[in-house]
Write a structure and sequence with these properties.
Mean pLDDT of chain B: 72
Distance between the termini of chain B: 83 Å
Mean pLDDT of chain A: 88
Number of helices of chain A: 20
Structural class of chain B: alpha+beta
CATH architecture of the largest domain in chain B: Beta Barrel
Number of helices of chain B: 4
Oligomer: heterodimer
Number of domains of chain B: 2
Largest sheet of chain B: 5 strands, mixed, barrel
Low-confidence stretches of chain A: 299-305
Structural class of chain A: alpha+beta
Strand content of chain B: 25-35%
Shape of chain B: elongated
Chain lengths: ~650, ~150
């Protein structure tokens, strides 16, 4: 009964969202403000209705209603409550509903926040958001409903895929969706600017926080996915350039470009068309990301079983969004001439321009590798995959150049930078970079990429530190206090800038983690019987034997290892093999991970024979924690910008 | 003055984009890995010997032989029409067992045995080789639902 109510609420939501498109359109045509208010109410009602829909599904999960197909497919009676709730987005149908719910929530929130401050954009925003909602709801209702029943009811559910029964995987999709859907608000504002002809900087100022919020959510979502892959998949790595990963990486890349290029428009009123283009691409790639993962468009490579009807619907939906948004941009672009020319190649504008270019080339690289197999399959019926070496070879140089720009762009002057300005800002960092590189080389970093990365990291870090020092001492002498107080003053007066620089520090830490863990990784695969010992790096591992372990809904076997450095005992490690009691019968590998000097010792037991012999993959991943720490620092940086106090003078 | 600067920026963009485009496309071709069914592998010409490819099929029941105390596993992969022997060395994914679908990456060296050191693990349980999917996913799915209702 409850599930039918949920279904009914979602069907009603579709009708309400169609009304939510029409009402503001009529309002614009007639000039009657009441219609626009009705459009806002539609968005709010939609949020309530979709909350009911999601609530009904969660209720069915928690009450273990195995007459609902989606509940049967994604849970069983022994599944812990935590994972039973997160099963809402564990499968295709539910995750689409969840997406639509976030969309409705953001639309209602945006209408509430901007209703008074941006009245001219509102009707357009409502139209766009309601259109997107109705597009998703139609897909849910007609082609992938999570509310379907089976008759007769099943006695027991199958289980949530055991690999998804992990905290990392519980939070990974919601964060990605918050990012994807969050970009719909800047997108809607951009379309509002184009359609209403109010093409100033208004839409960019209005959506500044939305953009940052979406970007950091997407960043967090991607990193959580990487963290999950590292802990749960047991192959010692965290990123495999899998199409599913690429799908979330592409909107992140263009979103990052957008995040930076809007600053040029804010400060210099340039890049107008470019910014509109970037946000349209970002949101389109967000949609594409959702669909690629959740629809099985990539079926030719991944062969997730799927319904061809969905693919066709999604293709049409994407085409409508693309044709409408780019079409509007092209028609309106003649009104968008930048009146200001770039004055010099040596300026912040051009640094941002190159930043954008490299991000877009990186995106194109991923796009080509992800969608080429699809294209070839459709055209020729040939099945092909693009190997990870392609991405690694192309990405490393791009990343290094972007890092250099990250050091230059925040420090170089707008318009045209004088020689004096360049010397003042970059002489010390350049010296630091050279000295640091020489020292690193002496200390034993001899590979080309790690050394180049180290040089660049020294350079960028030095630019940030000298900048902070200069500003701190300026404020210290300005108000006659100590350097430390000056530092806080400088920060207080420039929170946006320093939040940004802190985010850059996070990126540096993250990149060091990536390069360190990939260049200096050690690995070994071995077969061991109880009592055997092996060494990897400076550590020796002794295998003592196997023992049984048990969880709420799984049985398992774990291997006992004692780890020594020299003769000194370091830690006990217990890699596990789990067998979940659901329908899947699929064993999972739980790696044992021992943090050690910012890196990890990592054991993954892949096989057990009847005589008690085991196959073990052993890894040593130096600096890998820096990836997660870097992400954390980026998060703090962005939060500082999001909560900066309003400037009085503006 | 302004014109020449514009040209300068334009040229430098073109040069950089060109260089990176070359980097991307140059690496693209050699990193393409083709996917075949066992039947297609058997009809491959000598040119493909030693080239890295992927083969997808079902692991034949009763064909799986683990060489004791090594990382070597031998098994047969079929697409229903043809069957090829696979010599695998390494760590198979958790999902790998007889009677299920698998994709192996490696070399069709001698034209007699497929040498592989990687078997694909996928996130989904619904994973199956493409050709079999075309034969109809709905069937196994229906069986599944039926077995649940019993």
């Amino acid at each position: 009964m409850i599930i039918e109510l949920g279904y009914f609420a979602v069907i009603t939501a579709l009708m309400v969202s169609i009304a939510g498109i029409l009402a503001p359109v009529i309002g614009l045509k007639t000039g009657n403000h009441g219609w626009i208010r009705a459009g806002r109410q539609a968005v709010t009602v939609n949020f309530i209705l979709l909350s009911l829909g999601c609530g009904a599904l969660i209720y069915s999960f928690l009450s273990r209603d195995f007459s609902v197909k989606y509940v049967v497919m994604n849970s069983n009676s022994r599944l812990p409550v935590f994972y039973t709730i997160s099963a809402l987005w564990g499968g295709h149908e539910g995750s689409l509903l969840f997406w639509a719910w976030i969309l409705a929530a953001f639309a209602a929130l945006a209408a509430w926040i901007h209703w008074k401050t941006h009245p001219a954009a509102m009707p357009y925003l409502l139209i766009i958001e309601s259109s997107l909602t109705s597009g998703f709801l139609a897909l849910i209702i007609f082609l992938s409903s999570p509310f379907e029943r089976i008759f007769p009811a099943a006695a027991e559910g199958m289980d949530l895929n055991p690999l998804l029964q992990d905290p990392g995987m519980v939070f990974h999709p919601p964060f990605l969706y918050l990012g994807y859907v969050g970009f719909s608000i800047p997108f809607s504002f951009a379309m509002a600017a184009l359609l209403s002809g109010r093409l100033g900087e208004e839409w960019i100022r209005a959506t500044h926080r939305w953009t940052l919020f979406s970007w950091i959510m997407l960043t967090a979502g991607i990193l959580m996915g990487a963290y999950w892959a590292y802990y749960e998949l047991g192959w010692g790595g965290y990123w495999a350039w899998d199409p599913v990963e690429n799908a979330s990486f592409m909107p992140w890349l263009v979103g990052t470009a957008f995040l930076h290029s809007v600053m040029v428009q804010e400060k210099r009123k340039m890049f107008k068309v470019w910014n509109l283009f970037l946000i349209i691409v970002t949101f389109s790639l967000s949609l594409l990301g959702t669909f690629l993962v959740r629809s099985g468009i990539l079926s030719s490579v991944h062969a997730f079983a799927n319904d061809p009807g969905r693919g066709v619907y999604i293709l049409i939906f994407m085409s409508v969004v693309l044709i409408f948004s780019f079409g509007t941009l092209v028609i309106r672009s003649n009104r968008l001439k930048d009146r200001i020319e770039m004055e010099s190649m040596v300026s912040r504008e051009s640094a941002f321009l190159f930043n954008n270019m490299f991000f877009l080339i990186a995106t194109a690289t991923v796009f080509l590798g992800t969608l080429y197999p699809l294209l070839v399959d459709t055209l020729y019926g040939t099945k092909v995959t693009v190997g990870a070496p392609y991405y690694n070879k192309v990405f490393l140089p791009i990343v290094l150049v972007i890092l250099i720009l990250m050091g230059i762009a925040p420090m170089i002057a707008w318009r045209k930078s004088s020689r004096d300005n360049i010397r003042k800002n970059f002489l010390i960092p350049a010296v630091v970079a050279v000295a640091g590189t020489v020292i690193s080389a002496i200390l034993g970093i001899r590979q080309v990429y790690p050394l180049a990365a180290a040089a660049i990291v020294y350079f960028v870090a030095a630019t940030i530190i000298t900048d902070m020092y200069k500003n701190s001492s300026y404020w210290a002498s300005h108000s006659g206090t100590t350097l430390l107080k000056g530092f806080f003053k400088a920060w207080y007066h420039n929170q946006r800038r320093y939040g940004g620089l802190l985010t850059h520090v996070g990126v540096l830490v993250l990149i060091l983690g990536i390069i360190g863990s990939s260049s200096y990784k050690l690995e070994k695969t071995l077969i061991l019987k109880p009592g055997d010992e092996f060494t990897l790096g400076h550590y020796s591992y002794k295998f003592h034997g196997l023992q049984d372990v048990q969880g709420i809904n799984w049985m398992g076997v774990e291997a006992l290892f004692n780890v020594y450095k020299g003769n000194q005992f370091v830690a006990e490690m217990r890699p596990q093999k789990r067998f979940y009691s659901g329908g899947s019968q699929m064993p999972t590998t739980e790696a044992a991970i021992q943090p050690r000097h910012m890196g990890d010792l990592y054991l993954s037991m892949t096989d057990i024979t009847q005589e008690g012999w085991i196959t073990v993959m052993a890894f040593q991943n130096p600096l890998i924690h820096w990836i997660w720490y870097g992400g954390g620092i980026m998060g703090i940086g962005v939060i500082l910008i999001l909560f900066k106090r309003k400037r009085r003078e503006l | 003055m302004i014109k020449s600067k514009k040209i300068g920026i334009g040229i430098s963009i073109l040069v950089i984009a060109g260089a990176l485009g070359y980097l991307a496309l140059g690496n693209f071709g050699e990193n393409l890995i083709y996917f075949y069914t066992p039947s297609e592998v058997l009809s491959l010409s000598h040119d493909y010997y030693g080239k890295k490819v992927r083969v997808g099929g079902m692991v034949v029941d009763g064909s799986l032989k683990v060489v004791p105390n090594t990382l070597r596993i031998n098994f047969k992969l079929t697409d229903g029409a043809e069957t090829i022997p696979v010599a695998f060395e390494g760590v198979p994914p958790d999902l790998f067992k007889e009677g299920t679908g698998a994709v192996v990456e490696g070399y069709w060296d001698s034209g007699k045995v497929f040498h592989s050191n990687m078997i694909m693990a996928k996130h989904s349980e619904e994973y199956m080789p493409i050709e079999m999917k075309r034969a109809g996913v709905e069937l196994p799915k229906k069986d599944l639902m039926k077995s649940l209702q019993r």
